[in-house]
């Protein structure tokens, strides 16, 4: 494919994704994404970028973003974003996630991980969400209807910026962790500010202006580790794997956007 055709296709996909993310619900986007990814994948075959999750190579990643799509973000192979690719490397290189027998509860399961984690024979893997069509069970993260000390690992990414009370949600996650269990809790972070929220803000456009997205109710900041500690976690995880990866590899895999360079979570003793 020549460069002119590639540019034309990228512009078209950018417009399609911008329109879809601004008009369709999360549930609808999830349902459409598998078919869309399969259809456009051949257009992007190449060897300029690499996804560590699906191990595929492409000339470029897809544009992605709510409202206005930003270039070179979404893997056409597995639909991973920057944060998913970094998290996958973290789980593989710095945890026992793929080696030990573990019970795992995954809130708002991300599509790049869903089928891969289900295939892991060492994991007893359950997914949960309030309304996702791909989740196993329906659960409210602020009121988890499960016994104490139920899971070795809880994954809850890009959820806490949506819920009314993030502290209660974190306490619930801590409660259902087994002793020696750990949780991954990634959120969008602005490292230049302290966490800001205002429950009186309900207008979608104002939420987007203040919190970064129409359905966010807070903007987490540099004090996010303090929120994890306040919820009762005995050890706060702030991992800097990103900075140990050579810059050329970080760029090739598109591992993180500003504010996503660290892996955040907590441990229960």
Describe the protein's architecture and organization.
The model has no long low-confidence stretch (mean pLDDT 88). With 269 residues, the protein is an alpha/beta fold. The protein has two domains: 78 residues, no CATH class; 185 residues, Vaccinia Virus protein VP39 (Rossmann fold, 3-Layer(aba) Sandwich), CATH 3.40.50.150. The N and C termini lie far apart (55 Å). 35% of the residues lie in helices and 23% in strands. Helix 5 links the parallel strand 8 and strand 9. The protein is globular. It contains nine helices and 14 strands. The chain has a seven-stranded mixed β-sheet, with helices on both faces. Strands 10-12-11 form a three-stranded mixed β-sheet, with helices on one face. Strands 1-2 form a two-stranded antiparallel sheet.
Short précis:
By secondary structure, the chain is of the alpha/beta class.
Structural class: alpha/beta
The 3D shape can be described as globular
What would CATH call the class of the largest domain? Alpha Beta
Poorly predicted parts: none
Largest sheet: 7 strands, mixed
The CATH topology label of the largest domain is Rossmann fold
Taken together, the total number of domains comes to: 2
User: What is the CA-atom radius of gyration, in angstroms?
Assistant: 18 Å
Spatial order of strands in the largest sheet: 7-6-5-8-9-14-13
Give the number of helices. 9
Instruction: Please provide the ordered H/E string of secondary-structure elements.
Output: HHEEEEHEHEEEHEEEHEHEHHE
Mean pLDDT, to the nearest integer, reads: 88
């Amino acid at each position: 494919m020549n460069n002119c055709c590639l540019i034309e296709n990228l512009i078209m996909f950018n417009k399609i994704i911008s329109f879809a993310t601004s008009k369709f619900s999360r549930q609808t986007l999830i349902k459409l994404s598998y078919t869309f990814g399969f259809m456009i994948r051949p257009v992007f075959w190449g060897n300029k970028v690499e996804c560590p999750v699906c191990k595929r190579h492409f000339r470029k990643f897809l544009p992605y973003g709510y409202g206005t799509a930003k270039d070179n973000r979404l893997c056409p192979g597995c639909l991973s974003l920057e944060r998913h690719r970094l998290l996958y490397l973290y789980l593989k290189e710095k945890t026992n996630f793929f080696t030990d027998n573990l019970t795992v509860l995954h809130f708002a399961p991300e599509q790049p991980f869903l089928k891969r984690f289900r295939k892991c024979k060492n994991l007893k893997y359950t997914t949960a969400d309030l309304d996702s069509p791909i989740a196993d069970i329906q659960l409210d993260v602020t009121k988890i209807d499960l016994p104490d000390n139920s899971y070795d690992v809880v994954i809850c990414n890009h959820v806490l910026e949506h819920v009314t009370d993030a502290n209660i949600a974190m306490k619930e996650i801590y409660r259902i962790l087994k002793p020696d269990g750990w949780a991954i809790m990634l959120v969008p972070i602005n490292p230049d500010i302290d966490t800001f929220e205002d429950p009186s803000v309900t207008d979608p456009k104002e939420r987007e202006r203040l919190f970064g997205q129409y359905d966010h109710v807070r903007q987490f900041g540099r004090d996010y580790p303090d929120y994890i500690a306040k919820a009762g976690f005995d050890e706060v995880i702030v991992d800097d794997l990103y900075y140990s990866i050579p810059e050329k590899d970080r760029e090739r895999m598109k591992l993180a956007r500003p504010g996503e360079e660290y892996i955040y979570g907590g441990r229960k003793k």
